[in-house]
Amino acid sequence: MVFKMKKTKIAFAICGSFCNMENSISELKKLVKKYDILPIISFNVAKMDTRFGTAAETRKKIESICSKKIIDSIEGAEPIGPKNMADALVVCPCTGNTLAKIVNAITDTPVTMAVKSMLRIQRPILICFASNDGLGASAQNLAKARNTKNIFFVPMAKDDPINKPNSLVADFSKLSENLESILE
Ligand SMILES: Cc1cc2nc3c(=O)[nH]c(=O)nc-3n(C[C@H](O)[C@H](O)[C@H](O)COP(=O)(O)O)c2cc1C
To answer: Could you tell me if residue 28 is inside a domain?
Structure first.
């Protein structure tokens, strides 16, 4: 008899840090080889066409990589925790906006609903942060989130200290190894 190991289920939530969309999608391509991925997008990713691509293009890419329909509503994200739909949640990229909502218990997007739903059952959340105000207005939110049980961060650094002294961006290439360690 051949036993097939069930793949670990990872919910992968994408926020509107559009300049990092390609980085996020590259990491998603790697993770999908190893994990069963459940893709989630924020309302802004679902609707905004930017100089980095249209909302429709982004949706098509993600759905074709994951071979799954994207969760793009609050009611779609609500059962992720209670119905045991994911072992861990990755938020990649996480905007300053979404982080601010997470640490202030504001649940008005599919991504913030997914976070709340996973925290409810004490599952780990890995945040890949990117924001021009990481060391500015968002710094207090980063500190709060760092001090919250079950929330972890991919290491981040200043991406342009001269022109954007408050900007912080995660090292996306470290996502996969960080995910492995939080799953352990
Ligand atoms: C082209 C473009 C790039 C953006 N890049 C970022 C970013 O890297 N980080 C960030 O925090 N916000 C960024 N924003 C702003 C967010 O999209 C905005 O705060 C939005 O409300 C985020 O919604 P969400 O967190 O629900 O996805 C960008 C906006 C645009 C139009």
So the answer is: yes
CB 21, CB 90: distance < 8 Å: no
Residue 135 has pLDDT above 90, yes or no: yes
> Is 1 inside any structural domain?
no
What is the Cα gyration radius of the chain?
A: 16
Q: How many domains does the chain have?
A: 1
Q: Which two tokens stand for residue 37?
A: 């991925």
Q: What is the CATH number of the domain that holds 177?
A: 3.40.50.1950
Indicate the residue type of 133. D
Residue from 23, 48, 97, 113 whose mutation best tests the ligand 1 pocket (most atoms within 8 A of CB): 97
107 lines ligand 1 (CB under 6 A): no
Q: pTM for the full model?
A: 0.97
Find tokens 């982004």 and name the residue.
58
